[in-house]
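Page 42, continued from yesterday. The earlier attempt failed because a stray header line got pasted into the input along with the sequence. Redoing it now with the clean sequence only.
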Amino acid sequence: MTVGPHTGRRLILRDSVDNAGIRAFAEADGWTYQGDIARDPANQAFYEAKWSLPGGLSAHFVADEFVDARYLVVAGDDDAGVQEASARLEAALDVWSVADLETNFDVCVYPFEQARSVLLLGAGSPERAVDSVFTRVLEAVRHKEPRVRRAAVQAMVYAGWPEYREPLAELAARDADPEVAREAGLALRVLEERHG
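This time it went through. Structure tokens are written below.
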């Protein structure tokens, strides 16, 4: 997904939001459909549709098979415009709020559920670090099940916060599972490339 320098939070859509609802909102809000990118599993590309918005912004719908979620994200050169358009979307469509994602994480008890809940929390994280999300992801990093720790690593990549560098470095150096350690090292490199 190629976006502008400012990107809003990924607004993870609940199952009640169908394609017709997204199209109806886009039309009512003055969006112009730009096209889509076909799903390409061989190149790890998810299905994506793009609209241009008034004010030079863009909106991207992504069917993310890794997280097993669909989301919308607004991007563009004008940060205030991105935030305003994101807020309109969040108010109009049934999306997971950050608080809902945190509650979902808190109530999951089985490792499979815990892994998915931390992935959703990472994908739907705010643009800047907040303690309530950060502490939950770190809780998943300390989980006894490697699959939950691996999901926490991916959640950190989705969030992209520079504050995750230290926990990733610790996992890369000390995790008992070699796959978790390897993925943490790769994730650390991704964050370092993003933040210098």
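Notes: The two ends are 21 Å apart (CA to CA).
Reminder to self: strip header lines before submitting.
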